[in-house]
From TrEMBL, chain A:
It holds the Pfam family NrfD. Residues 1-47, 316-356 are annotated as: Disordered. The lineage of its organism: Bacteria, Bacillati, Actinomycetota, Actinomycetes, Streptosporangiales. The keyword Cell membrane applies. PANTHER family: PROTEIN NRFD. This is Polysulfide reductase. The chain crosses the membrane at residues 64-84, 96-116, 136-154, 166-191, 203-221. Belongs to the NrfD family. The keyword Transmembrane helix applies. It comes from Streptomonospora alba. InterPro entries: Electron_transfer_protein, NrfD-like. It is a multi-pass membrane protein. It is found in: Cell membrane. Residues 1-18, 27-39 have a biased composition (Basic and acidic residues).
Length: 356, 312
C-alpha cells in the first residue's frame, strides 16, 4: 500500500463551520465481523495493532511486590505476637515483634523508594480519602508503625515493659487491617487480573500473611511454644490456596496470567511451597529442623504469591485481550438482556449493572 | 461541579462526579473522527503550548502512527487505522447541511482521485480511519479517586487536572485509568496528562489542539451543547447510510458517568485502542472494602483460634 494513492484533493469549500462535513464516505454497509486482528486462543477480539489499552503499571515489582509481602508478614506477625503474649508464650512473641518491626520498616521503605518523588512522601498525609486505598493504607501504617516499633523496642531494651505490651496489643489489633488493605489497593485499578479478583484477593492476602507469620514463628520460636505458629501456617496456607483456586475459577479467561508465563510459575511455586510448608508443620512440628525448613517454605511461598499476583497483573495490563474481551462480553450480555426484556431493547443508554 | 480533593473526606463515597449545585457549564471536547484527516496538528499544538517533552522518535512499523498511544509526554494521539474495508463511492460534501454555500475551489494542487485510472475492479477495498485521542476527563474519574495526595483535582470547568507541585509520583493513577491515558514521566517521577489547557480556559481561549485542528474534528465547548451537536451529527451520518458511526463516551449513564471528552467513531472503540465498556474501578470499591473487612476479621478470628485448645 505504498502507491501514490494518497490524494490531496485540495480543500473544497471554505473551512467548514461547526457542522463539519464528511469529505468522502457513503454507503454505510459496514459489516461488523471481519476481525482485522483477531488473535488465537479461542477468544476473538479486535484491537489497535495489538497495542495495550491500559498503560503499564509503573510500580516496580520488587518494591510493590515486596511491599505486599512485608505488609502481610508484619500485620499477621503482630496478631500472632499479641496472642502469644496473652497466652504466656514469650519466646514466640519476642521474635514476632521483631519481625513485625522489621517487615513494616521494610514495607515503608519499599513504598517510599517506589515513589517518583520520594522526598514528597509526606504529601500522602495531606488528605484522607476513602476512595484511595493507598491513602487509607498510609494512615493505617501511620497508626500501626509506631505501635509495632514501640513493642519491639521495648522488648529489646526492657524499657517500659507495660507500655510495650500495650503497644504490642494495639499493633495486634491493627495488624489485620495492615494485612488486608493491600488487596483493595491493587484491586482498585483497571488491571483486569487484579480488579476482577477483588472478592477473593483479600482472603488470598490474609491467608498468605498468616502463612508467612506462622512460618517466621516456626523458624524462630522453640517448638514447645510454636504450636500457634504452626497452626497459623497451616490455616493460612489452606486459606490462601483455597482463595486462589476460587479466584481463578471465577475470573475465567482473565485468570490466564495466573497460570502462564512467569506469573504462573510463581503461583505454582507458591502453591508447592505453602502446601509443603503446611504439611511439614503438621507432621514434623516437633522437630526443630523440620520446623525451620517448613517455616522457611511458608515464608518463601507467601513471597512467591505476592510476586506472582503482581506479575499476573502486569501481564494482564499488557495484553489488550484481557481488557477488550470481557468488556465486549458485558456489552453483548447487556444487549441480550435488554432484547429479552423489552422486545426491542434499545442499545443506547442501557443501564450498567453489569460488572457481573 | 467543581470538586476539590477533599471530596473523599467529606462524603466517603467514590464519587468524583460533578456537583449538581454548581451551575457553571461543564466544558469538554467533542472529537468527530469522521472529519479527522490525521494531520497531527493537535499533537504538535499540544506539545508546543504545554511544553511537553519529546516522546521518542520511534518507528512503530504498524501504520502512519508513530506515536502509538497516550502517555506522560503524549497528551493528544492520532490513531491511524488501515482497513481492508469498502470505502464506498467517493462523495464529496456528504452530509453537508441544506442551504450551505457551494464548495469553492481554492486552486490547491491536487491529483486525481485514487484509483481513478484503474477502474473499480482494481481499486480494491481499503480505507483509513483517523482519530485524535485525548484524556476523557471522566465524570467519575478513577485517577482522581485513587490519588492519595489530592494532587489530582476537578477544576471549575469540570475537567481533571494534576497539580504538579503536589504529585509525589506514587503511580496509583496509572493502572487506575481505564483508558490508559495518564502516565509517569520517567526522568521526572511525576505523572502527567492533558489538562484541557487549564491555563488557556481561564483566559477565555479554547485548548491548543482544538484551536489548531484544521477540520474542526476537535471541537471545544459547553458539554451540553457539544452533546447536542454530536447527536445531530450522528443522526445525519446514519441518514446517509453510515451505520457504523457511533458516539463514544457520550452517554452519562455509562461506566464512567460519561466523558468530558467524547468521540464520534466510525468503528468499534477497540479498533481505535479504546476500551469498549470502561468502568470506573471505584464503583466496586465499597464492595472491596467490605470483602477486605471480612478477610481482616477472618485473620483475627483464625489466629485467635490457633491459641485455643490444648496447650502444646
Amino acid at each position: 500500500m505504498s502507491t501514490s494513492d494518497v490524494t490531496k484533493e485540495g480543500i473544497r469549500g471554505a473551512r467548514p463551520g461547526r457542522e463539519a462535513m464528511t469529505g468522502a464516505v457513503s454507503d454505510g454497509h459496514r459489516s461488523r465481523e471481519s476481525p482485522d486482528r483477531g488473535r488465537g486462543g479461542g477468544s476473538e477480539f479486535r484491537s489497535y495493532y495489538d497495542q495495550p489499552v491500559l498503560n503499564q503499571i509503573t510500580w516496580k515489582p520488587q518494591d510493590i511486590g515486596g511491599y505486599l509481602f512485608l505488609g502481610g508478614l508484619a500485620g499477621a506477625s503482630s496478631v500472632l505476637a499479641a496472642g502469644a503474649d496473652l497466652t504466656g508464650r514469650p519466646d514466640l512473641a519476642r521474635p514476632l515483634r521483631y519481625t513485625a518491626l522489621g517487615a513494616v520498616s521494610g514495607s515503608l521503605a519499599a513504598l517510599i523508594h517506589d515513589l517518583g518523588r520520594p522526598e514528597r512522601f509526606l504529601n500522602m498525609l495531606r488528605v484522607i480519602k476513602w476512595t484511595s486505598p493507598m491513602s487509607v493504607g498510609t494512615w493505617i501504617l501511620v497508626c500501626y508503625g509506631p505501635l509495632a516499633g514501640a513493642a519491639a523496642v521495648s522488648q529489646a531494651t526492657g524499657i517500659l515493659p507495660g507500655a510495650g505490651r500495650l503497644a504490642g496489643l494495639g499493633a495486634g489489633a491493627i495488624g489485620p487491617a495492615v494485612a488486608a488493605y493491600t488487596a483493595p489497593l491493587i484491586c482498585n485499578t483497571a488491571v483486569p487480573a487484579w480488579h476482577e479478583g477483588y472478592r477473593e484477593m483479600p482472603f488470598v492476602f490474609v491467608g498468605s500473611g498468616a502463612a508467612a507469620a506462622g512460618g517466621m514463628g516456626m523458624i524462630t520460636a522453640p517448638v514447645g511454644q510454636a504450636g500457634p505458629a504452626r497452626r497459623a501456617g497451616v490455616v493460612g496456607s489452606a486459606l490462601e490456596n483455597a482463595a486462589v483456586a476460587t479466584m481463578e475459577r471465577r475470573m475465567g479467561m482473565i485468570a490466564e496470567p495466573y497460570k502462564q508465563g512467569r506469573g504462573g510459575a510463581l503461583m505454582r511455586a507458591a502453591k508447592v511451597l505453602t502446601i509443603g510448608g503446611a504439611v511439614g508443620a503438621l507432621v514434623g512440628g516437633r522437630s526443630r529442623t523440620v520446623s525451620a525448613i517448613a517455616g522457611a517454605a511458608l515464608v518463601a511461598g507467601s513471597a512467591c504469591t505476592r510476586f506472582g499476583v503482581f506479575k499476573a497483573g502486569q501481564d494482564s495490563a499488557a495484553d489488550p485481550k484481557y481488557t477488550v474481551v470481557p468488556q465486549r462480553q458485558r456489552i453483548r450480555d447487556r444487549e441480550r438482556a435488554a432484547a429479552q426484556e423489552g422486545g426491542d431493547g434499545g442499545e443506547q443508554g442501557a443501564q450498567d449493572p453489569a460488572g457481573d | 461541579m467543581a470538586l476539590d480533593e477533599q471530596s473523599g473526606v467529606r462524603t466517603g463515597v467514590p464519587e468524583s462526579a460533578a456537583d449538581p449545585q454548581d451551575d457553571r457549564p461543564r466544558m469538554g471536547f467533542f472529537t468527530d473522527t469522521s472529519v479527522c484527516i490525521g494531520c497531527k496538528a493537535c499533537e504538535v499544538a499540544c506539545k508546543e503550548w504545554n511544553l511537553v517533552p519529546e516522546d521518542g522518535l520511534d518507528f512503530t512499523a504498524m501504520s502512519f502512527d508513530n506515536t502509538s498511544g497516550l502517555g506522560a509526554d503524549t497528551w493528544r494521539h492520532v490513531a491511524f487505522i488501515e482497513q481492508r474495508a469498502p470505502l464506498g463511492a467517493q462523495e464529496t460534501n456528504l452530509g453537508r447541511p441544506e442551504g450551505a454555500p457551494d464548495s469553492v475551489d481554492l486552486g490547491m494542487p491536487s491529483f486525481d482521485l485514487p484509483g481513478a485510472y484503474t477502474g473499480e475492479d482494481e481499486r480494491g477495498e481499503f480505507r483509513w480511519l483517523m482519530s485524535s485521542d485525548v484524556c476523557k476527563h471522566c465524570t467519575h474519574a478513577a485517577c482522581l479517586d485513587v490519588c492519595p495526595t489530592g494532587s489530582l483535582f476537578r477544576t471549575e470547568y469540570g475537567t481533571v487536572v494534576v497539580q504538579e507541585d503536589i504529585c509525589n509520583g506514587c503511580g496509583y493513577c496509572v493502572p487506575a485509568c481505564p483508558y490508559g491515558v495518564i502516565d509517569q514521566r520517567k526522568d521526572d517521577g511525576r505523572v502527567w496528562k492533558c489538562t484541557l489547557c487549564y491555563d488557556r480556559l481561564g483566559e477565555g481561549m479554547e485548548p491548543a489542539c482544538a484551536k489548531a485542528c484544521p477540520t474542526d474534528s476537535i471541537q471545544y465547548g459547553d458539554l451540553d451543547e457539544l452533546r447536542e451537536r454530536a447527536d445531530e451529527r450522528l443522526r445525519n451520518l446514519h441518514e446517509h447510510g453510515i451505520g457504523s458511526a457511533q458516539l463514544y463516551g457520550r452517554d452519562p449513564d455509562d461506566g464512567v458517568g460519561g466523558d468530558g471528552a467524547f468521540f464520534l467513531l466510525l468503528e468499534d472503540p477497540e479498533v481505535y485502542g479504546l476500551p469498549p465498556d470502561p468502568v470506573v474501578t471505584t464503583r466496586d470499591l465499597p464492595s472491596m472494602w467490605r470483602h477486605a473487612g471480612v478477610a481482616a476479621a477472618t485473620l483475627l478470628a483464625g489466629i485467635t483460634a490457633t491459641f485455643l485448645g490444648r496447650r502444646r
